[in-house]
Each structure stands twice: as C-alpha cells, then as structure tokens.
Design a protein that fits this description.
CATH superfamily of the largest domain: ATPase, nucleotide binding domain
Largest sheet: 8 strands, mixed
Helix content: 25-40%
Number of strands: 13
Bound molecules: adenosine-5'-diphosphate
Strand content: 15-25%
Order of helices and strands: EEEEEHEEHHEHHHHEEEHHHHHEHHHEH
CATH topology of the largest domain: Nucleotidyltransferase, domain 5
Shape: globular
CATH class of the largest domain: Alpha Beta
Distance between the termini: 21 Å
Strand order of the largest sheet: 5-4-3-2-1-6-8-7
Radius of gyration: 21 Å
Length: about 425
C-alpha cells in the first residue's frame, strides 16, 4: 500500500492542505493540493490532483464552523479518496516559534503548550495553526506531527538586528525581533542556485507581497534582516495591518481615545493597512481595479513603503545584486512590480517591461545592475521537506525548479 504525508496551513477561515504520496519503492510526489475556504461562513472544499484535475469542489455542511470541524471534514474527504492509507506524518505551518525554535520540531503536548503561550504574539495565525495540531492529535493520535515555523529561517541574525531597544530587563521576557514568512524565504533561497545562480551567493532582497507582506535581506542565501519583527504587524503596509507605526499612536489610542486592548488589537490586525486607508478592500486586485482616490492612495502607500524598505535593506546589505518578487501580489501584479522597480531605479534596477508583463522568471534588462526575478513561492513544499527530513521519510528525489510552484503539481519532496 502507498504511504502518505500531509501538510496543513490553517488560517482563521481557511485550511490549505497538500497530500503527498509515496508509492512502494518510489519517491514522494504530490497527490493532491487543495483547501477548505469560508470556514464559519459558507465552507467549501476544493482540491486538484497530480495533473491539475479537479478532485473535489463541494460545498460543506455549514456545521464546519471552526478549525476542528474543518480537520474532521478534511479527514472524511481523505478517507473517501484514499481509505485505509497509511499516513506517516503531518507537517504544519506554525507562524511563531518564539526564541527557542530555530528549526522545525516534532510536536508533543509540552511543545504545544509552549507554542500556545505565543498566541498573543500572532493572534491572527497562531491559534488556528495550533488548533489544527490539536485536531490531528484527536483524529490521528499515533501519527507524528511536525511544526515548521515562519520565524526559524531568521534565527541567527546579528544582535543589532534582533534587538528591541527597550530596557534590557523588560526584553529578557522574550522581547526581540523575530521576522516571519520564513518558510517562503527559505524556499526561495533554496531555489536561487538553480533559477538565478548569478545572485544565489550575493546580496538579495526577497519581497513576499501577499495579504501579509514583508521583505527579507539575504546574504549568501541566509537571512540577515527582515521588515517584520516581534510580531507580524511591523514593516510593510499589508491587507489589514498597518506595518511600521509610531508607538505613540498606540498610546494615543489607549490614553486619548480610551480604547480597550481588544479594540486596539482589532484595529492593528484587522482594520488597518490597505483596507484602513481605502475603506474599500484589503485585496490588492480589487483596489487596482477601482477608480476611487482612496483606493489609489492605498496602492500608492503600499508601493511607497516597499520602496522605502528596499532602500533600508540595501543599506544593511551594503548594496544589492538581486530583487525577487513572490506571493500573491509579487507573483501576479505586473503593475505593482513595475512601480516598485521604477521607484528603485536609483539602486540600478532596470525593468524589462515585456518580460515583466509575461511574468518571465527574470524581468530585468540584461544591463540592469540589479537583476529582478519573479519566483513563485511554495511554503507547503518547504513544510513537506522539513517534515520528511525530521521524520526520516526517505525515498525522495530532487525536482527541477520549473516543477516547483504554487500551482504546479509535479512536485516531489526532497528529504
Ligand atoms: P495569503 O497567502 O497571505 O492569503 P496571497 O499570497 O495569496 O496571500 O496574496 C493575496 C493578495 O494577492 C491579495 O491582495 C490579492 O489581491 C493579491 N493578488 C492576487 N492576484 C493578483 C493580481 N493578479 N493582481 C494584483 N493582486 C493580486
């Protein structure tokens, strides 16, 4: 019988999953990729198979109201597809690993409890990530689970890059800059030697521009700085989060406007950024299609902040050899890429507009001092690689980079 492994990326209203299969004596390959969306409103399960064929596209019972129920629904769909299959491991995306976890870990109850203590540092993601682990413990108590952290790839930053300049005794409680989107950056870094060998060992900024957005500075493939810090609120303007903010603003909300901690949290995590500025949408595609000046202002601010932080990270790197765009906006919006590149021309960025429109891997002109790339990220594959290597699920081989993207299906896990 074939062996299976799962990766899960659980959010507040969605559960993204990948099913990996290892036929007897062969390598791991992706068997399905899909998601349950609309958890709590109108839940729907969709999944595609190896050749992009639709395996599922169904409405689910409205009782799928939370992460636990979503895991139950996923488990029964998996049983209907691959009943009796042996699941060797489940890998999870967990946003915050705190100061202790420099690499993925096999989760036990003690580690789960420790990770639960980090929920206040990532209220938008951590509770849902951990609820999925608990639900799998209930459904598949004997299957090992691996937590892969968005913070791990950034461990090892210089002391000054990790520092929060508050009184040292306060910082001892774990106040430091962590950085996030690490699974995405680790994946991109792992692809550079194949896709863009000329910059793989150089000074590179990767722009992960999705609903959450950040930049990572890589030197020789290793993270040296990130725009996100103690929480995923810092740095760039995002769909619903403001990014960099004068802490005096937060004091003002408490002291002058008399808001409660819960109200301030909701403003910072859910009501700011693109949706806050525009009053229209948190979705970049929507905003680009609208004519209201507020929509334009939100897009302008997004581009302005990315450009500003590219300059700051280039300063940290002491120059720049490459710029990589990834995630929903970075991979799909030629307009945003073009505006950011235009504003970064002082660094020696020269965009090839045809290549940018066609979303070629390299979108800069041959004479551009900084080469610019679009590389689709694949956090799930990174989770699968970590899960495979930690659980020693051997029998995997390397895949050509062209096969490794969010929508591609011909993926094999390397362990
Ligand atoms: P997450 O995984 O954090 O939910 P994604 O990486 O999927 O986020 O990115 C979602 C963002 O990408 C949304 O703002 C969406 O509007 C944007 N996006 C997707 N496709 C396009 C496009 N063609 N043009 C502009 N923005 C796009």
């Amino acid at each position: 019988m074939d062996d299976y492994a799962l990766t899960l990326n659980a959010g507040s209203s969605s559960l993204k999953f990948c099913v990996f299969r290892r036929p007897v004596q062969e390598s791991w390959e992706i068997a399905a990729r899909g998601q349950i969306e609309g958890i709590g409103t109108s839940p729907r399960l969709s999944a595609k198979g190896t050749k992009g064929e639709i395996l599922a596209d169904n409405r689910l019972d409205a009782a799928v109201r939370d992460g636990h129920a979503a895991i139950d629904a996923l488990a029964s769909w998996l049983r209907s597809q691959w009943g009796g299959a042996r699941v060797l491991g489940v890998g999870h995306r967990v946003v915050h690993g705190g100061p202790r976890h420099e690499r993925p870990v096999i989760v036990n109850q003690k580690i789960l409890k420790e990770l639960q203590e980090l929920i206040p540092l990532a209220p938008l993601h951590q509770p849902y990530n951990l609820a999925a682990i608990e639900a799998v413990f209930e459904q598949l108590p004997d299957v090992p689970q691996v937590a892969c952290f968005d913070t791990s790839f950034h461990r090892g930053h210089a002391r000054v890059a990790e520092l929060i300049p508050l009184p040292a005794d306060i910082c001892k409680a774990g106040l430091q800059r962590y950085g996030f989107h690490g699974l995405s950056y680790e994946f991109i870094s792992s692809l550079l030697p194949e896709v863009a060998p000329e910059i793989a060992h150089g000074r590179v900024i990767v722009a992960h521009l999705g609903s959450g957005a950040s930049l990572c500075a890589l030197r020789d493939g290793k993270s040296v700085e990130s725009t996100m810090s103690f929480t995923a609120l810092d740095g760039l303007c995002m769909g619903t989060r403001p990014g960099r903010l004068d802490p005096g603003v937060v004091l003002y909300l408490f002291q002058t406007l008399g808001m409660s901690a819960k109200e301030v949290e909701a403003i910072l995590y859910r009501r700011s950024g693109l949706v806050g500025i525009s009053g229209i949408s948190n979705d970049m595609r929507d905003l680009l299609g609208r004519s209201e000046p507020e929509a334009g202002l939100a897009v302008d601010y997004f581009v302005y902040r990315v450009t500003q932080e590219i300059g700051a990270l280039a300063a940290v790197l002491g120059g720049l050899d490459g710029l990589v765009f990834t995630a929903g906006i970075g991979e799909n919006s030629a307009e945003i890429r073009s505006r950011i590149c235009e504003a970064s021309s002082w660094l020696g960025v020269e965009l090839d507009s045809e290549a940018n429109k066609n979303r070629e891997p390299r979108i800069s002109t041959p004479r551009s001092k900084v080469s610019v790339w679009v590389i689709p990220t694949n956090e799930e594959l990174m989770i699968a690689r970590h899960t495979g290597s930690l659980l020693r699920l051997t029998g995997a081989k390397r895949v050509p980079s062209s096969a490794q993207n969010r929508s591609g299906n011909a993926e094999v896990v390397r362990s």
